[in-house]
Amino acid sequence: MFSRVLIANRGEIAVRIIRACKELGIKTISVYSTADKESLHVKLADEAVCIGAASAAQSYLNISNIIAAAQNTAAEAIHPGYGFLAESSYFADLCRTNNIKFIGPDPEVIYLMGDKVKARGIAMKAEVPLVPGSEGALNSYQEAAMLAREIGYPVMIKASAGGGGRGMRLAHNEESLKESMEMARMEAGAAFGNDEIYIEKYIEEPRHIEIQILGDQYGNIIHLGERDCSLQRRNQKLLEEAPSTLLDKDLREKMGNMAVNIARAANYHSAGTVEFLVDKQKNYYFIEMNTRVQVEHPVSEMVSGVDIVKEQIRIAAGEALGYSQEDIEIRGWAMECRINAEDPQNDFCPSPGTIGQYLIPGGPGVRVDSAAYSGYTIPPYYDSMIAKLIVWGQSRDEVISRMKRALREFQIENVKSTIPFHLRVLDNAFFRRGEVYTNFIQRRMTERFHE
Ligand code: ADP
Ligand code: ADP
Ligand code: MG
Fold this sequence. Notes:
This protein is of the alpha+beta class. It has helices spanning about 10-25, 40-45, 65-70, 90-95, 105-115, 115-125, 140-150, 175-190, 250-265, 295-305, 310-315, 395-410, 420-425, 430, 440-445, and strands at about 5, 25-35, 45-50, 75-80, 100, 155-160, 170, 195-200, 205-215, 220-235, 235-240, 270-280, 285-290, 335-340, 340-345, 350, 355, 360, 365-370, 375-380, 385-395, 410. It contains 15 helices and 22 strands. β1 (about 5), α1 (about 10-25) and β2 form a beta-alpha-beta unit. The longest helix is centred in the middle third of the chain and has 19 residues, at about 175-190.
């Protein structure tokens, strides 16, 4: 096992990784920007190194400073968390060159699966159904128009390098296709430095169902069941749960096996997530694979009892998975609400600032993953998540009551948060019946907002 690990991230995920390391007896080294001097991930780590100015480009994306920090502190491994450098094959490769273990899959695999067009190729090879669409990247409008006519409108134009719900455009007909393509290309180029785009059939009112997988370096790959992340705003997840109200044992097993097959075809090790859309007829289609720990990983931890971050670290250190698929048992229900510093009454406008009193909920089945505290100032430079509130219960009904109770206990003074919005979702009759799909918020939450 490693004795020293550097965490190349910030916020709640850095704290989450520090906790896993401590339980494994590993010394932790945090890196931080000048804006994060007072951050919890700095306070909780054994050592901390300042790597640059506030902007992410100068700090959490500053590869040379991060590698230097690892070398100067004799770190044997780097955990990248999610976002920032987590899906940079270049960074993973540079770690390898410098004899530092990157806690994640091999750079070649990140390169392959991080490119959505290439990943579609792998899924096809693994005989997993894909959303109908391009076989390669789009070269011209003519090519796109032909393909769209074949698969039928509406279609989605997506960025090969896309992530975080960005670089995606809907086209309802041939007239709007050209403009959507141009917009998607521009957005992708600006956001990801890569303007390659492809086309997919638009699946109407789908569920977003993803499978958590774990694989070691010896070819053992298992899955921890699904997460239902259908509750989204602008293609970004807001609330996730496991299991899904849609899946039965049969479909769970089928999709689980498909995810494992994709991971096997990609030569995957570490934790990873295979994302699918599922339509009304319960047809499932691969959309992408995330080669990192996911924001919503705690939901799977709560129902499976597996510590996904510790497993990532053990796998990177060369340990074999100590169990097989038959040993995994999904117990009860879990749900996560992403509590963002955003004002739901004002179009989810970011609401950074200094938190006054910060009082987190507790009691049976409640977990809070957060890097905030009373008096903490949320910097405007990074994402707006304050906390993840995760709740476990025997049944979905118990989880919903418990989540409402916990959300009401949660006090975050002085900044606006998404707590009131989550409370409304949990009271929505369609949500309570488990009728969720990716356009749920547009379709079911349009009535005027009253607190
Ligand atoms: P998850 O799939 O784990 O729910 P999100 O899609 O919410 O994750 O993304 C997690 C974090 O990573 C967010 O801060 C998001 O903005 C960032 N992110 C994801 N993909 C990319 C990407 N390709 N480029 C830049 N940032 C990304
Ligand atoms: P990202 O890398 O940004 O997470 P994904 O490919 O995972 O992108 O898609 C994010 C979300 O966008 C999905 O969960 C879904 O809500 C929506 N989406 C993506 N592709 C399609 C599609 N072909 N049809 C309908 N919705 C889609
Ligand atoms: Mg995705």
